[in-house]
Specification:
- This protein is α/β, with parallel strands linked by helices.
- The protein folds into three domains: about 55-295, ANL, N-terminal domain (Rossmann fold, 3-Layer(aba) Sandwich), CATH 3.40.50; about 390-485, Roll (Luciferase, domain 3), CATH 2.30.38.10; about 485-625, 2-Layer Sandwich (GMP Synthetase, Chain A, domain 3).
- About 35% of the residues lie in helices and about 25% in strands.
- It has 20 helices and 30 strands.
- Strands 2-1-11-10-12-13-14-15 form an eight-stranded mixed β-sheet. Strands 7-6-5-3-4-8-9 form a seven-stranded mixed β-sheet, sandwiched between helices. Strands 16, 17, 20, 21, 22 and 23 form a six-stranded antiparallel β-sheet that branches.
- It starts with a helix and ends in a 5-residue tail after the last helix.
Length: about 625
């Protein structure tokens, strides 16, 4: 462990010796000491692996040798042991040896959640190849972009006619890229495709020599994970070996261990599914119950049947589980804790109470981020802590700074330095850039990498990563996610948090969910608030319901934050990772000619929301100066 870090942990230890006295002066310090104690052993273990050059694939092979008969993955009621998965991974590695690729060369995979995904990935790792995880919902220009930017030398397509159909649509633009298809024999494929199954049948399950990957370093890419951001084509985030171990040890910090069974229903191409699900399972030698896709109706049924002890979530997933009818077995399960990110405060307590979850451990992180925070105190709504002591003890300094929502950049003082916020304020999260990312966090886009950085932050020459996320820091240094820049908008000279508005809207009994965003109105500055509201089953946007929404907005929101427009789609539009889509909603605005969804405007004179019609829309545009 570096000397500097030893000194920092020494400081934390000294603080612990005088804990009683310190708690008198700083009542929040007990939480910090608890978090430091929990994290120290997890950090030390990960650092030892890094120093010894034991990467995730070596850790997996060790468990495969020590516990060969233990279930690694349970999928559709079938058990796949560590030994079986290792043998299948060996077959994959022996196939890939014939490609004559170099360490860190890229192989693209577009495969559904399945055991095949896992052993194909592990087999490629046995050779030190980087795997580009392609979102299986992509097609056309977006799919082609992901393959090109990852510089894939081989493309493996999973079983499914819809996947092959998507590849057919761009095949002419892929030049001579070798394409292997799972789930089909060669006789069932066109000559331009090769059968992966035929190769697997012919390949031997003998291990490849570890020396073939001897040149792997902490910076060698394990995989590329794509993030969509708010606009534009997907961005390819580099996930190096060192970060993989950091991600996996992060979950171990929560108490996740070898005897646990984790249930995961998030897509494996996403950092939540593959990172916090698969990587963590392999890291501690646990078992994963993998679902092909999320199903609210079968969620608890699967968890109970397989005696899962840990569940992970992302975004709005728990909201849809809560929407299922109550069941006598709701509280009958083995779950010790749930962890994830994006759990809104309005459903946190409801989910925990209904299903009797002992602990919910919300964290804050991003796929391209270089740090993370975690709430291990079960404090409702919080995603972690950022106190002076934790900042001191961290080798990578993180701060919340004042920001401009229009430019998505930190504000500067008269001397051009960034300005830290104080407790009980909101700020933009920035973190010192580690040497591991000296070439950036994204693959193949210098301009995009530079845009993500903030230079000369507090001293000349320092470099920080701009997360693009706004968090609130309370007086006890607990963090609360507020918004992502691009979601936050400015209206009437004030910053509007979409999450804050959504939490107020969902407090109305008939409202199931609310997607808040800002829309442009010609002739006005900033963006006016609008919300796409999904009502609970059986409810419609009646005069009584829209009046209830108006009343809660008037009582609980400042005037500038109250939505000027409401839209009532039949169903919420979600991404594959359970996040609410906004781009198309923003484009439609409040124009009734662009959608058949009912749209309402804030009618202050009548103290309610009134319908926007093709007749009233032009009148509203004329009144824009009064909005």
């Amino acid at each position: 462990m570096p000397l500097k870090k030893n000194v920092l942990y020494g400081v934390a230890g000294a603080v612990g010796c005088g804990a009683i006295a310190w708690r008198t002066l700083f009542p929040w310090i007990g939480e910090d000491l608890h978090l430091l104690a929990q994290s120290s052993s997890a950090k030390a273990k990960a650092e030892k692996f890094i120093m010894e050059g034991n990467w995730l694939i070596e850790i997996f092979e060790k468990f495969a040798a020590e516990t060969p008969g233990k279930p690694l993955v349970i999928f559709e009621d079938k058990i796949y042991t560590y030994d079986f998965v290792n043998q299948q991974a060996n077959r994959v590695a022996n196939i890939a040896l014939n490609w004559k690729l170099n360490i860190a060369d890229t192989v693209a995979m577009m495969v559904y959640n399945s055991p095949e995904f896992i052993w194909t990935f592990l087999g490629l790792q046995k050779l030190g190849l980087a795997v580009s995880f392609i979102n299986y919902n992509l097609h056309g220009k977006s799919l082609l972009h992901c393959l090109q930017i990852s510089e894939a030398k081989v493309f493996i397509v999973g079983e499914g006619t819809e996947l092959l159909h998507a590849v057919d649509g761009i095949k002419d633009d892929l030049d001579d890229l070798p394409i292997y298809v799972q789930g089909s024999l060669q006789s069932q494929l066109l000559p331009s495709y090769q059968s992966w199954d035929d190769l697997m049948c012919a390949s031997l399950p003998v291990p490849v020599c570890r020396d073939v990957r001897h040149a792997i370093t902490p910076a060698t890419p394990v995989c590329y994970i794509f993030t969509s951001g708010t606009t534009g084509l997907p961005k390819s985030v580099i996930i190096p070996q060192q970060k993989v171990l950091s991600i996996a040890s992060f979950v171990e910090l929560l108490g996740f261990g070898q005897t646990d069974i984790i249930y995961s229903s998030t897509p494996m191409y996403h950092s939540s599914g593959v990172g916090l699900g698969l990587f963590s399972t392999l890291y501690v030698g646990a078992t994963m119950v993998l679902s092909r896709k999320f199903s609210a109706r079968h969620y608890w049924e699967d968890i109970r049947r397989h005696k899962a002890t840990v569940i992970q979530y992302i975004g709005e997933l728990f909201r849809y589980v809560l929407s299922t009818p109550e069941h006598p077995l709701d509280k009958k399960h083995c779950v010790r804790f749930a962890f994830g990110n994006g759990l809104r405060k309005d459903i946190w307590k409801s989910f925990q109470d209904r299903f009797q979850i002992p602990e919910i451990k919300e964290f804050f992180a991003s796929t391209e981020g270089t740090t993370a925070t975690i709430n291990i105190s079960n404090k409702v709504g919080s995603c972690g802590r950022l106190s002076p002591l934790l900042t001191l003890a961290s080798p990578l300094k993180s701060y919340l700074v004042k920001f401009d929502p229009e430019t998505a950049q930190p504000l500067r003082d008269k001397d051009e330095w960034c300005m830290k916020i104080k407790p009980e304020q909101s700020g933009l999260l920035i973190t010192a850039l580690p040497p591991l990312y000296k070439n950036g966090v994204y693959k193949g886009n210098k301009a995009l990498n530079e845009k993500k950085l903030v230079r000369d932050v507090f001293t000349k020459g320092d470099i920080y990563l701009n997360f693009g996320d706004i968090l609130y820091l309370d007086k006890n240094y607990y963090l609360y996610f507020q918004d992502r820049l691009g979601d936050t908008f400015r209206w009437k000279g004030e910053n509007v948090s979409t999450l804050e508005v959504a939490n107020v809207l969902t407090s109305v009994d008939v409202v199931d969910d609310a997607n808040v965003y800002g829309v442009h109105i010609s002739g006005t500055e900033g963006r006016a608030g609008m919300a796409a509201i999904h009502l609970k089953d059986g409810h419609k946007p009646s005069p009584v319901n829209v009046k209830a929404i108006y009343d809660v907005c008037e009582s609980d929101l400042p005037k500038y934050a109250r939505p000027l427009f409401l839209r009532f789609p039949a169903e919420p539009d979600l991404t594959s990772t359970f996040k609410l889509k906004k781009n198309e909603l923003v484009k439609d605005g409040f124009d009734p000619n662009k959608t058949s969804d009912p749209i309402f405007y804030c009618n202050e004179k009548e103290k309610t929301y009134s319908p926007v019609t093709q007749t009233s829309y032009p009148q509203l545009m004329e009144m824009r100066s009064k909005l």
